[in-house]
Structure formats: structure tokens, C-alpha cells
Amino acid sequence: MAGLKTIIVLSFILAIGFLLVILSSALWKNYLPLLVVATYVVAPIPNWICGRAANPDDFMESSGSVLIDFGRFLTGFFVVMGIALPSLFAHCALIQYPAMIMSIVGGLLIYGTIISFTMFFQEENEF
Q1: Which one of 88, 102, 121, 126 is separated from 37 by 20 to 30 angstroms, measured CA to CA?
Q2: Which terms does the UniProt entry file under GO BP (predicted)?
Q3: For the whole model, what pTM was predicted?
């Protein structure tokens, strides 16, 4: 059971992630690294939608596994895109390499916090 300390720690980590992404944009006056925030915020949505749409049955284990796998694929695509996009921008000299590193680390902190929030505060279905 998650308590108040968990909320405070996760909020602090989320704030550090947003700070890193915003600083990666503001320090070099180039706002392309802010796209990382969008990819990491959108990343858990396909997994959540496909998990809800699969409607798993208690008696059949393989019910809707294709839909769940597709949701995981899209989530993985967005996470990899959140890492690859700043790398591509840095390679093309659209952003600086320190901005790339700050953007990737900040984005991973944001995504990790979102996943941690869902894990800690997930409702358990009891019959």
C-alpha cells in the first residue's frame, strides 16, 4: 500500500525529470527537446487502452493477447522514440549533446515516475 511518502518521493522525481527537460531546452535556447515530454506522456496510453479493450477472462489465459501485445509494442515504440528523437536531433546538430543527455535522462525519469504511480496506486479487483 502506497502512502504519503511514496507520493512525495515520486512527485519529487517527476519534478526533477521535468526540470531536466526544461533546462535542456532553456539553457541552449532550442525548444526541440520538449518533444520528449510528449512522447513519454503518450507512451503508457496504448498499453492502458489495449489492456482495457482486451477484457481478460478468468478462465481463458490467452484471451486478447494479440491486443495486449500490440499495446506493449506501441508503448515500447514511444519509449524508444523518446530516446532516439533527441539522439537524432543531436546527430543532425539541431540541439547540443549536453541537451540531448539532459533530455533523455529527464524523459526517462518522467516515464519511470508515470509507471511507478500506476504500479503503486493500482486498484486490485477482489471478488
Answers
A1: 121
A2: late endosome to vacuole transport via multivesicular body sorting pathway
A3: 0.84
How far is the C-alpha of 109 from the C-alpha of 100, rounded, in Å?
14
Q: Kindly tell me the sign of the dihedral angle through the C-alpha atoms of 59, 46, 100, 84.
A: positive
Q: Report the chain's C-alpha Rg in angstroms.
A: 17
CA end-to-end span of the chain, whole Å? 19
Angle, helix 4-26 to helix 35-42, in steps of 10 degrees: 150
- How far apart are alpha carbons 5 and 87 in whole angstroms? 35
pLDDT in tens, 61-113: 555 688 889 999 999 999 999 999 999 999 999 999 999 999 999 999 999 99
